[in-house]
Design goal:
Length: 215
């Protein structure tokens, strides 16, 4: 019989590992390779060559390729989480409109400075049948967190009287997520011929207008 303290110890969440300098070098190498060759086309041997270490040395830092991919994804997602943290409370309608526009501006800036975000989305979409359940669960969890964040944004817009009270939160959050993802993919495929910042600004203004409280 499992005692209560042992049961609690077994169910306690694992403490996130603090990665060192070599870990970051390996993650950088893996990031470039996943972006260039996809998940299936990236091997541990390739990562080792790109990082200038032996394949055996990799196992001192990561268990397998899935560990690498999850570390790369977490690096990118953490950068995004930090970027979207609010620097001040949103308490008025003007505060909310400013913050809503900033969400799109920040998204555009992050994609421009780190286009690996869009590549990650393409990899997950096209290679989902080749990726193990552990990675898929992590990516679905990340998507769920992003949708939850957008739901909270829409809900706050309604509470502050910026968005109409009858706006369906789930639908609006899904619209935001899918439209932003679509624009990101167009920009990634067409490059400088597609103005990402301009498109995002227009999206934000049109959502504010379409979902606003009727005058």
């Amino acid at each position: 019989m499992i005692t209560s303290p042992r049961r609690e110890a077994e169910s306690a969440p694992a403490v996130p590992r603090r990665r060192g300098a070599l870990d970051q070098v390996l993650i950088n190498a893996a990031m470039d390779l996943f972006a260039s060759y996809g998940y299936r086309g990236t091997s541990l041997a390739r990562i080792a060559r790109a990082a200038g270490v032996t394949k055996g040395a990799l196992y001192w830092h990561f268990n397998d390729k899935e560990d690498f991919f999850l570390a790369v994804a977490e690096r990118v997602l953490e950068e995004w989480r930090k970027a979207f943290r609010r620097d001040r409370p949103v308490v008025t309608r003007d505060d909310f409109r400013e913050y809503f526009l900033k969400i799109f501006e920040t998204s555009a800036q992050l994609n421009v400075t780190n286009p690996w975000v869009s590549r990650l989305l393409i990899i997950i979409t096209l290679e989902s049948h080749k990726i193990g359940p552990r990675v898929l669960r992590a990516m679905r969890k990340a998507n769920s967190r992003q949708l939850e964040y957008l739901r909270d944004v829409v809900e706050q817009g309604k509470e502050l009287g910026v968005f109409a009270s009858d706006l369906e939160v789930e639908w609006a959050a899904t619209q935001l997520w899918s439209s932003m993802a679509g624009v990101q993919l167009l920009w990634y495929l067409h490059g400088s011929r597609f103005d990402l910042r301009k498109s995002f600004r227009r999206q934000a203004r049109e959502y504010l207008q379409q979902w606003s409280v009727a005058k």
